[in-house]
TrEMBL record, chain A:
InterPro entries from the UniProt entry: P-loop_NTPase, Ribosomal_mS29, Ribosomal_mS29_met
Keywords: Mitochondrion, Ribonucleoprotein, Ribosomal protein, Transit peptide
Species of origin: Cyprinus carpio carpio
Protein name: Small ribosomal subunit protein mS29
GO molecular function: structural constituent of ribosome
Entry GO terms, CC: mitochondrial small ribosomal subunit
Entry superkingdom: Eukaryota
Keyword Mitochondrion: yes
Compartments (UniProt record): Mitochondrion
Protein's GO biological process: apoptotic process
Family membership: Belongs to the mitochondrion-specific ribosomal protein mS29 family.
From TrEMBL, chain B:
Family: Belongs to the universal ribosomal protein uS7 family.
Taxonomy of the source species: Eukaryota, Metazoa, Chordata, Craniata, Vertebrata
Protein name as annotated: Small ribosomal subunit protein uS7m
Transmembrane segments: none
Biological process, per Gene Ontology: translation
């Protein structure tokens, strides 16, 4: 009898949640049994009992927040299914709960998402970043730090410092994306900065002008990036209440690129150190916890890394001694393959979206084969189901 | 040259005629009561006679499709089966993506007409490309004539696949990937359009035009 009451009370609880979700004015999208598609309300409702369920990222948010941030296969999936759905998973929930409980008057906590290849680190990071965006934080998102240490076509010697190298294309691209993501903050943040001996931005100019200058003049764009980061660091903990207050979320994917090796060569054909690149140097300064009023969310990545074996996935292996010492103390968050409930959810989601077409994949035996072939690894499962 | 893989060739293509082909499917075993007398004889034969070695590309899984395997073999160059299979999976994925995208963007009324299964699209496209009648060159009185001739099933399947592959390799823009070209051609053939179906129709018209020479065929 007690069990029946419990079941009834749980169903009433869920019915209440669904009623609240369905009454939300901002909510749109279908509410199937495993789809939580109210972004705003569901953020506060994301808790352990929602693990394995999917929630839809609104299209406007994807355009603004992730102009460059999502993995390419996920972008293809968004285009095909006409919606961007992310699975709620324990590492992301852990990260969001830490973000909720942290004290923002103290120096920022550094979170590192680590795990084997294809387990979903970038997606968990994106989920947490979306939470920060809906809470109104200012987002500094470096979608893949590995892109800054390899395949750079233009490597200019820096105008401001003699022993540094600039990357104008990458810097201006990042500034454009930063502008798209943080449009509402660009007019609020005030600053003053000196460029070269000829150019200077007066005090009291909004951040938007600085970013525009960086986008328009490619030569000084790397220095502009450094200036932007420095200003945000100084101002994040500054005004506690009122108009100018904001919390800063620094998100870096592929953190191990900052302390690894580059594949770039200087003009005398010697290898370039990551220290000598302006962009990398400035991001490293961001990673120190000598400011306050925000959080540093990072994810390691072996797939884009240079000169690291494929079996390496732990922070100590990928970051190296220097990186580990710089990042310590940090909060490690481990990301692993799907468990059974998450696999079920993923399988049902693909069925719902009409993605699993082969008749055998829809049977029980086919499902067992998928489990066997993919070992419940999210990325391998996605690639398998793509042609089945 | 595909030397990097250490695959040893177990199976020759020359076997004694009494060797039977391996049947990897799990449903091969049917209880004895449901078999007709000929099938019972066949089962007896299977217990006694030797069987050829199985190819490494055959699986007992139900995902194994003999038509797709044949197409992969025809696409393969220099024995690079991995590349050929990769191209095939990418083709199936591209077809599915295009169709599923169309499915999700169309209103509910039109959704049932859109075929999203890449395997049915492939099979149907191949069927649409198969010629019914072919031409053979016959010499009579010093002159060679193009004579309309019936084709076996294997020959028809071979011609359809060959035309698809050569069309994609030769007549498309050189900067597009093979899987893109193949998916475009297959979707066009599924809708009975495109260059391969046109080539089939041209063959049929030639055969129709040369009807008068049909009596030159003696087989």
């Amino acid at each position: 009898f007690a069990k029946k009451i419990k079941i009834v009370s749980i169903t009433f609880h869920y019915i209440n949640i669904y009623k609240k979700l369905s009454k939300c004015k901002i909510c749109y999208g279908n509410l199937t049994t495993f789809n939580l598609s109210c972004p705003f309300l569901s953020q506060t409702y994301h808790s352990e009992r929602h693990t394995g369920q999917y929630y839809t990222l609104p299209a406007a948010h994807i355009q603004k927040l992730f102009p460059h941030g999502l993995p390419p296969r996920f972008q293809l999936q968004i285009k095909t299914f006409n919606e961007g759905c992310v699975m709620v998973r324990p590492p992301a929930l852990e990260l969001i709960s830490y973000l909720k409980k942290a004290d923002y008057s103290k120096p920022p906590l550094r979170y590192i998402l680590y795990g084997d290849v294809g387990t979903g680190k970038t997606m968990c990071l994106s989920h947490a970043l979306h939470y920060c965006y809906t809470q109104g934080w200012l987002i500094v998102h470096i979608s893949d730090a590995h892109l800054w240490v390899k395949n750079c076509k233009e490597l200019l010697p820096s105008s401001s410092r003699p022993s540094r190298f600039d990357q104008p294309i990458q810097a201006s691209q990042w500034l454009k994306n930063f502008k798209i993501t943080n449009e509402r903050f660009l007019s609020k943040v005030q600053l003053g900065y000196v460029w070269t001996k000829r150019e200077r931005t007066e005090k009291g100019q909004p951040l938007g002008e600085l970013v525009d200058q960086g986008v328009n003049r490619m030569k000084s764009s790397s220095d502009v990036v450094g200036a932007v980061l420095r200003e945000l660091r100084l101002q994040a903990g500054g005004a506690t209440e009122g108009e100018g207050a904001f919390k800063l979320a620094v998100a870096v994917d592929g953190l191990n690129a900052l302390w690894g090796k580059t594949s770039l060569k200087k003009e005398d054909r010697t290898m370039c150190e990551p220290e000598e690149l302006t962009l990398i140097h400035n991001v490293r300064k961001m990673m120190k916890n000598n400011w306050s009023g925000g959080a540093i969310l990072t994810a390691l990545s072996q797939t884009g890394s240079l000169f690291k074996p494929q079996s390496a996935y732990l922070p100590s292996e990928l970051l190296g001694e220097e990186g580990f010492d710089n990042m310590e103390p940090f909060v490690p968050v481990s990301v692993s393959n799907y468990n059974e409930k998450e696999f079920e959810s993923c399988y049902l989601y693909y069925l719902d979206r009409n993605w699993l077409q082969h008749s055998h994949s829809r049977s029980e035996e086919g499902k067992k084969e998928l489990i066997f072939l993919s070992n419940k690894n999210p990325s391998i499962l996605e690639r398998l189901c793509a042609f089945l | 040259m595909c030397v990097s893989l250490s695959l040893c060739l177990v199976r020759w293509s020359r076997y004694n005629p009494y060797y039977l082909d391996p049947d990897p499917s799990k449903d091969a075993r049917v209880p004895e009561s449901e078999l007709s007398p000929e099938e019972k004889e066949l089962q007896e034969l299977k217990t006694v006679s030797p069987i050829k070695a199985a190819l490494s590309s055959d699986t007992s899984s139900a995902f194994n499709d003999p038509l797709i395997s044949k197409f992969i073999n025809m696409m393969m160059q220099d024995g690079n089966k991995i590349l050929a299979r990769g191209i095939m999976t990418q083709t199936l994925e591209t077809i599915k993506r295009k169709q599923v995208e169309k499915y999700h963007k169309s209103p509910a009324a039109k959704r049932e007409e859109i075929e999203c299964n890449p395997y049915t699209v492939f099979h149907q496209a191949l069927e649409n490309c198969k010629p019914i009648i072919g031409l053979a060159s016959v010499q009579k009185g010093g002159k060679s004539y193009q004579v309309p001739v019936p084709l076996t099933d294997n020959r028809r399947r071979f011609l359809a696949m060959k035309w698809l592959i050569t069309e994609c390799r030769d007549n498309k823009h050189r900067r597009t990937h093979m899987y893109e070209k193949l998916s475009q051609e297959l979707l066009a053939a599924f809708a009975n359009e495109g260059n391969v179906v046109k080539r089939k129709h041209d063959l049929h018209k030639m055969a129709e035009a040369n009807r008068a020479y049909a009596h030159y065929r003696w087989w």
